[in-house]
Amino acid sequence: MGIGDVIGFAVGALRGHRLRTALSVAGVAVGIAAVVALTALGEGARGYVVREFMSLGSNLLIVLPGKVETTGGMPYGGTTHDLTLDDFRELARRIPGVSRAAPIATGTETVRFGGRGRSAPVIGSTVELLEVRRLEVASGRFLAPGDPEAGGSEVVLGVEVASELFGTSNPLGEVVRIGDWRYRVVGVLAPHGRSFVGFNFDDVVVIPVQTAMRMFNRASLFRILLEMESADHLDEGKRAVLELMHDRHRVDDVTVITQDAVVETFSSILGVLTLVLVAIASISLSVAGIGIMNVMLVAVAERRREIGLLRAVGAGTGQILAVFLTEAAVLAAVGGLVGLLGGWLAVRAFVRVYPSFPATTPAWAVAAALAVAVGVGVVFGTLPARRAARLDPVRALQGR
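User: That's the sequence. What structure does it adopt?
Assistant: Structure tokens below.
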């Protein structure tokens, strides 16, 4: 009995019990589809997080006021000194490898024009914020360059704020009120899109940093962004920032975060979460495997005469074993292929609903899913196959 004969026997037996075959295939398909879909969503989530963080800028050091400590429980920390504009100037001037630097002060205030008004986040910064955060101006200009201490009464509107206050009218040159302060509109930002990290720059107003600090009566900056010339400068730059701030404040009271470290941490967390979800989904494959084993045990009981006849015409135990293992493997493989198609369709449907989410099934997941499906069929088909191979030919021909 050659390989072709073995496969022919297996396929013929499956065709002879279409309903039973379909149910077994469906069990495997559901498990594989779940694994494929969850892997795609997990990988997509990781890609989405990385993309969102990279959209904040590249090669960034983020300097925060306050030294955060952990003791194995909840984080705690405090700020003993303000993070001032003087600190910003010294960091921008003295840290090696800094290409751009932008201070940030924040708050929330009501923005009004005519009879319209809305609450909006207010960001105080300098002209460098435009390049550091990869922003674009749709009309007008960004903040004027100059000394951050000088302040000023100009404002750049996010596109949503401009639309709500001015509709289709041109806001450039108009005067808006932010709280009790009057500002002349000098620019409107291009649509930037919503992000789950950082600010939604479609929904903000940007004013000079010193003006924002006076408006909100704050002496400390929210943070300082330092864009390094390359990733090679990040570690050295972080050490230099901590040393300089220690020299200025005489205490370690700032936290420096590297963008790459944040991305790596989130990527690792989401990678582990993906594996956990896939492991949970794989439980259904075990259930499908048990279903295949039960189907094959029933098949052995029903086909005792056939097994006896094969043995009588010279088929060895190894060939009988191969017939039933092949049958189980074909069941699982067909289920795996159907599951791959189902998982792919589920991912495509998800992407149509959420087009900005980069859910794609990696090639390794497709190959692994199909291999696991066949493996499940072989493992759970082994017991029935061994039982068939051990049948006594005479008793089998008698149907006993």
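The chain has two domains: 3-52+264-397, 101-227.
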